[in-house]
Specification:
Number of domains: 2
Strand content: 5-15%
Distance between the termini: 22 Å
Helix content: 25-40%
Shape: globular
Radius of gyration: 14 Å
Structural class: mainly alpha
Largest sheet: 2 strands, parallel
Number of helices: 5
Order of helices and strands: HHHEHEH
Number of strands: 2
């Protein structure tokens, strides 16, 4: 499904996601977010270790983060630390992305797109 946005891997698999996952799900080679060296326990309790870096990496641009570990604390962090629109969308790890998820992402993209 074409969502009309730039896709990147934000996974600890890093470049390996392009080798092991992309071909299996029909994605082209994608850019990869490089994770800095930091301690997992940095930040407020309940904040996912990826959240701060992703918010910084987006540099104020609208973004969607799809993950199975997103929490209310991650949403709060993005809401208060990111000047642009963002959608932190949690997927069920036992199901992966399903049609309802794609509908949510597409609806958000349509609403966030500049007129």
């Amino acid at each position: 499904m074409a969502l009309g946005c730039r896709l990147v891997w934000a996974t600890t698999w890093m470049e390996e996601a392009n080798e092991a996952v992309s071909p299996r799900i029909g994605l082209p080679r994608l850019p990869v977010v490089e994770w800095p060296d930091f301690h997992v326990d940095e930040g407020p309790r309940g904040l996912h270790w990826k959240t701060r870096h992703l918010v910084e990496w987006t540099d104020g641009q609208p973004f969607i983060w799809v993950d199975d570990e997103i929490s209310a604390m991650d949403r709060l962090w993005a809401e208060t630390s990111h000047p642009g629109p963002s959608l932190l969308h949690r997927v069920d790890p036992t199901k992966g992305l399903v049609n309802a998820d794609f509908s949510t992402l597409a609806d958000w993209l349509c609403a966030a797109a500049p007129s």
